UniProtKB/TrEMBL annotation:
EC number(s) per entry: 5.3.1.24
Family as reported in the entry's similarity comment: Belongs to the TrpF family.
UniProt xrefs under NCBIfam families: PRK01222.1-2
Xref: HAMAP family: PRAI (MF_00135)
Classification of source organism: Bacteria, Pseudomonadati, Pseudomonadota, Gammaproteobacteria, Lysobacterales
Designated name of the protein: N-(5'-phosphoribosyl)anthranilate isomerase
Amino acid sequence: MKTASVRTRVKFCGLTRAGDVRLACELGVDAIGLVFAENSPRRLQIEESRALRQAIAPLVNLVALFSDNPPEQVREIVRLLRPGALQFHGNEEDAFCRSFGIPYIKAVAMGDGTSPVDTRALHARYPHAAALLYDSHVPGGAGGGGKPFDWKRLPGDNTKPVMVAGGLNATNVYDLITQRAPWAVDVASGIESAPGIKDGDKMRAFVAEVHRADCNNEHESGYRLPTQGHCG
Ligand SMILES: O=C(O)c1ccccc1NCC(=O)[C@H](O)[C@H](O)COP(=O)(O)O
């Protein structure tokens, strides 16, 4: 039997319904992203997020997303939801991001730029980031826009796990994984029928394509642990 020697982690982001959360967990995603950024159509109120939290299966990570939210709001969400990681999309600096005592992911705005990413500068600016998420928003803009950036701009000299987002869906995630082998992929609109409303068929197709890519991927990324997942 053919086996996958690596496994790409999957984060589904911007869920707003408990049923979608349950299906995502059944499909085997690694993380569920709940959005608390003010400018998002997927933004949750704290009360509704508690029901979603309860729908997350054991061993599946909860990631809480922010974009320049006030610290007391972040603290309140950390207290109530106990996320496994925080994700910051705004102009937050390292000291702020790490001050909540939970591993953090920093989103890097790839925008419409063409210049190479200065990985050294990024690592110096966010020394305590657990991972960097390369996403297609413009600096200061919101995520979840459903538009990819040019993956050739992904840096090759990372010393932190690389996550990729921006316009991913079941038709392009295979190419991303086989071309660039990120540690994790992150998707919001590519698995939706409307902002915040996930589509079961699109979720299934996305996970199936990640699995297919992992089973065909010869590329060994320095950010992955070897695993032996079965490919059928
Ligand atoms: O999803 C949002 O509405 C959002 C708003 C403000 C900041 C971040 C936001 N989402 C961040 C994500 O992690 C998305 O999954 C990521 O940007 C990819 O989105 P998409 O291109 O729709 O797959």
